[in-house]
């Protein structure tokens, strides 16, 4: 172990990776380790076991607890094996309790800057996030959450930032600018005018004003980024917001999509057909949901 690079000592940011033993979460860990090793970040892996709710006799308690811990220990053993394969050592932690609450508690306790979770499933948000631990982490975490599709690579060289002029997108813009300045090379900024055909037909002047407002929004973010001396491009599109964001991410071969989370009602909004939900469920690349903490 002496020849391994330690990612326990944090120099820049600390990333918490939530594991469930799946290939998707293991890939998320491997990609996070590779990124962290290159960018001098720290990595902690966590897995959570649900509490035992059956009847316990005192003499059986320790045996049952140990038996319950074994699946979690196997997950963390696999995590440490991945770390060794990548030439590093990481911190691991095994928790028992409500899964999404425990993940968030660990992230807060360790003062993590980001939580990484894998996105499973191939059929969009309904299977990937609806009612799952991932959705609850995204909805309730005060800390930024990065959702990794299966087999995705984690890079921050080419970031696509989606903005809508809200205070939440301004927070996301500041985060994306900082990330691009620190770790990346290029920041692409998109705002989408999303109105239905009937509105287009009945209020063309209003739509034109919305387009002008969208240009103002992306131009404002570009102005914010000038001090950082990063390369930026701006785009305004009309149509379904999530479709245009994903379409642009594919066209630009974006490494990551960054967007804001709308306040404390995040979970309810996330699971009720929001843009964030649909982008997360269908994006070809990792999606960073920036929280307003």
TrEMBL record:
InterPro entries: Rossmann-like_a/b/a_fold, Universal_stress_UspA, UspA. It comes from the Bacteria. Coiled coil: none annotated. Residues 15-148, 156-291 form the UspA domain. Gene3D superfamilies: HUPs (3.40.50.620). Belongs to the universal stress protein A family. This is UspA domain-containing protein. It comes from Candidatus Aquicultor primus. The lineage of its organism: Bacteria, Bacillati, Actinomycetota, Candidatus Aquicultoria, Candidatus Aquicultorales.
